[in-house]
Design a protein that fits this description.
Blueprint (H helix, E strand, L loop, with lengths): L1 E8 L2 E8 L4 H8 L18 E4 L2 E4 L12 E3 L12 H8 L9 H14 L5 H7 L11 H13 L1
Helix pairs in contact: 2-5
């Protein structure tokens, strides 16, 4: 059974008919072709699917698409503005805070929401904020440095 859903994605209103049991991650990836949101585990443990839902960092694999009805969703594709990278995206590049890149969108989305709430965080606050995001390649020091650098730019 498909259900009508209306929500904003990266500033654009979207009207869709989606399967009642599809996750928001599946809707974003399959129906809207926004593939920056990654499926790492499918059970909320890795953070690869982190998006911004009404100003909160959430795992899109844990939310049904129908639950997005009436809400604002921001994915990694909506972070840059007019072709200019967001300071977090630029800092991840400059600090070499990525290797394979699979986890990077989730880290950036978590960090973006965190920095909007805490623009001058300590290193420990950053580490706590990204604790729900896993990286198997880089370790976390470069990621923390990138978030610190982005905080200074804001």
């Amino acid at each position: 059974m498909k259900v009508p859903v209306r929500f904003s994605v990266n500033g654009d209103d979207r009207d869709l008919y989606i399967g009642a049991h599809k996750t928001l991650m599946e809707v974003l990836r399959d129906d809207l072709e926004l593939t920056g949101t990654k499926e790492g585990c499918g059970n909320g443990n890795c953070g690869a699917c982190t998006i911004n839902l009404d100003g909160k960092a959430v795992n899109a694999c844990l939310i049904l698409g129908v639950e997005a009805d009436g809400h604002e969703v921001q994915t990694i594709e909506g972070v840059s503005e007019d072709g200019t990278l967001h300071p977090l995206q630029q800092a991840f590049i400059e600090e070499s805070a990525l290797q394979c890149g699979f986890c990077t969108p989730g880290f950036i989305m978590s960090a973006k929401v965190f920095l909007e709430q805490n623009p001058s965080p300590s290193e420990q606050e950053i580490r706590t904020a990204i604790a729900g995001n896993l990286c198997r390649c880089t370790g976390y020091d470069k990621i923390v440095r990138a978030i610190q650098a982005a905080a200074k730019l804001a």
